[in-house]
Amino acid sequence: MDDLSTARALALVQAVLDDVRDGGTADVLTGLEVLRRLRDEIAAWEPELIAAAREQGASWARIAPALGVTSRQAAERRYLRLRPSASGERTGEGRVRAERDRRAGDRAVANWARENSASLRRLAGQVSAATGLDAAAQARVDDALAADDVTELLSPLAAAQADLRADHAGLADQIDTLTRQTDQVRQDTLDRRD
């Protein structure tokens, strides 16, 4: 379809089909090839449109009927199966599993962070008070410290680690320990899921 627009390709397939139905001898193989390419192009549109619907605030439950499926889970599963992999999974089911594993890991880390909120907030307070921290990193830590959800501290703390290494090695080491702990929580969750 490199030199055919989608509309022209569809018209070509329709013309071949009409000719065959009328008993003609149209080039059916060309029609099939163009149809396959058209199908591939249209299939690539679906995850893009689903992502746009989600970005516009549509729930999975609202998207499901438009996709011809009956549940929000089926709609999301279809999207995960169709979209390109961000982490290298080759099959649709692999993409579904990877996304579910990622979410399970995120939930486990969030639970761990909530259980350790006092320690996380104390560390964030020390990082916030540290001198020599990049202004943008300082602002991210301060904003996360002010947030209700303690899980918002994890990323800004990890990002601040490199800035702290030279003048505040002890804080950088604590953040390194924190990062290793959250990585272990995530890995333990994945191991249990396998």
Q: Keyphrases for this structure?
A:
9 helices; elongated; 76% helix; mainly alpha; 194 residues
Secondary structure layout:
Layout: H1 6-21, H2 28-55, H3 60-67, H4 72-82, H5 92-115, H6 117-129, H7 135-146, H8 154-164, H9 169-193
Helix pairs in contact: 1-2, 3-4, 4-5, 5-9, 6-7, 7-8, 8-9
Provide a brief overview of the structure:
The protein is an all-alpha fold and 194 residues long. The protein contains nine helices and no strands. The protein has helices at residues 6-21, 28-55, 60-67, 72-82, 92-115, 117-129, 135-146, 154-164, 169-193.
Write the element-wise H/E pattern from the N-terminal end onward.
HHHHHHHHH
Oligomer: single chain
Low confidence ranges: none
Overall, the morphology is: elongated
**Terminal CA distance:** 42 Å
Largest sheet at a glance?
Answer: none
Helix content: over 70%
